[in-house]
Amino acid sequence: MNHENETAGPADQHPAIGLDDVVHQRVRLGILTVAHQARRVEFGFLRTALGLTAGNLSRHLAVLEQAGLVEIEKGYEGRRPRTWLSLTPAGGRALQDEVTQLKRLIHRIEHGGSAPES
């Protein structure tokens, strides 16, 4: 909430206010970005691509799954257990909203003043 001007509309708010804490955390933003680029992502690939431990990645995936932004699928590839991740429609929208807010923030930094409407 903007305490300085509580009547300010979305266009008047600083872009940082619109960043989603669940999505904006760097590891979770990375997970959502990789998932956006592929239909389905394997846990081991994500772990390696983002330079995480299995436990750390698991914790971030749990946050994203609880928020309804990703779906987790467990199964087997041959005899080896595997975990796959896919972005939900809500996850795609959340990622797009985050990118929009980041663009507004960058515009504000580069051009000063308020950001243009999207």
From TrEMBL:
<protein>
    <submittedName>
        <fullName>Winged helix-turn-helix domain-containing protein</fullName>
    </submittedName>
</protein>
<dbReference type="InterPro" id="IPR011991">
    <property type="entry name" value="ArsR-like_HTH"/>
</dbReference>
<dbReference type="InterPro" id="IPR000835">
    <property type="entry name" value="HTH_MarR-typ"/>
</dbReference>
<dbReference type="InterPro" id="IPR036390">
    <property type="entry name" value="WH_DNA-bd_sf"/>
</dbReference>
<dbReference type="Pfam" id="PF13601">
    <property type="entry name" value="HTH_34"/>
</dbReference>
<dbReference type="InterPro" id="IPR027395">
    <property type="entry name" value="WH_DNA-bd_dom"/>
</dbReference>
<dbReference type="InterPro" id="IPR036388">
    <property type="entry name" value="WH-like_DNA-bd_sf"/>
</dbReference>
<feature type="domain" description="HTH marR-type">
    <location>
        <begin position="20"/>
        <end position="118"/>
    </location>
</feature>
<dbReference type="GO" id="GO:0003700">
    <property type="term" value="F:DNA-binding transcription factor activity"/>
</dbReference>
